[in-house]
Design brief:
Blueprint (H helix, E strand, L loop, with lengths): L5 H13 L1 H9 L3 H15 L5 H19 L5 E6 L2 E7 L2 H6 L5 E5 L5 H12 L8 E5 L8 E4 L2 H17 L11
Parallel strand pairs: 3-4, 4-5
Antiparallel strand pairs: 1-2, 2-3
Helix pairs in contact: 1-3, 3-7
Length: 180
C-alpha cells in the first residue's frame, strides 16, 4: 500500500476486512465510535514498531483522510501556508484566507512533548485566529483553549460528528451523499 508505513498498510487492510458496505452503513447511521473500534483499535494493537504518539497521530490522520473522502467532507491535507505546515483544513485554503469562521485547521499531534505541540498551535494561530476552529487530535485529551479530541473510540467519534456538523452548518458540502 505505502512505502514503509505499517500503520497505513494495517489501516487499509482493516478497512478492506470490514468492507465498504458495512463502513457506509455505519457512516449513514452516524456510528463513528463503532467504526473507530472496528477499524482503528486493531491497528493500535497490531502495530508495535512505531513510537506510541507517532502511531496514534499517524493513524488518526490517515483514518480522518479516508473518512472525509468517504463522507465527501471537503478538506485539504499537508499544505504549507505562510511558511506554516498544516496537517488538514476543512474545507480548503481559499476559505481559510477569506473567512476564518468558515475554516477548521486540524493538527494531528504525533508527540507527547507539550512544548512542541504548543509551538505548533501558536504557529497555527497566526493564520487561524479563532481558537474554536483549531482542532487538536492527540493520543490523550489535552487541556487547551482550542478544540481537543483524543484518539480513542468516543472522542474520535465526536470529532467526526463535529466535522460533519461543521460542514452541514456552513453548507460547505453541496452533495449530501456518500461516495460510491
Amino acid at each position: 500500500m505505502s512505502e514503509n508505513s505499517p500503520i497505513k498498510d494495517t489501516l487499509y487492510e482493516n478497512i478492506a476486512n470490514v468492507g465498504e458496505e458495512q463502513i457506509h452503513q455505519l457512516l449513514l447511521n452516524g456510528e463513528f465510535s463503532e467504526l473507530f473500534e472496528k477499524i482503528c483499535e486493531p491497528v493500535i494493537q497490531d502495530v508495535k514498531s512505531i513510537e506510541e504518539y507517532e502511531k496514534y497521530g499517524t493513524l488518526a490522520e490517515s483514518f480522518t483522510h479516508y473518512l472525509f473522502t468517504e463522507m465527501l467532507i471537503p478538506s485539504q491535507r499537508k499544505i504549507s501556508f505562510e511558511n506554516i505546515e498544516l496537517d488538514m483544513i476543512i474545507p480548503n485554503l481559499e476559505e481559510l484566507r477569506k473567512n476564518n469562521d468558515n475554516a477548521i485547521v486540524i493538527f494531528f499531534a504525533k508527540t507527547s512533548d507539550s512544548m512542541q505541540i504548543n509551538e505548533r498551535i501558536q504557529e497555527i494561530k497566526k493564520i487561524q485566529k479563532k481558537d474554536s476552529n483549531i482542532w487538536i487530535i492527540s493520543k490523550e485529551i489535552m487541556n487547551i483553549s482550542q478544540s481537543a479530541y483524543a484518539i480513542e473510540r468516543n472522542s474520535f467519534g465526536e470529532f467526526v460528528k463535529d466535522a460533519q456538523n461543521f460542514v452541514k452548518s456552513r453548507k460547505i458540502n453541496k452533495l449530501n451523499i456518500f461516495k460510491t
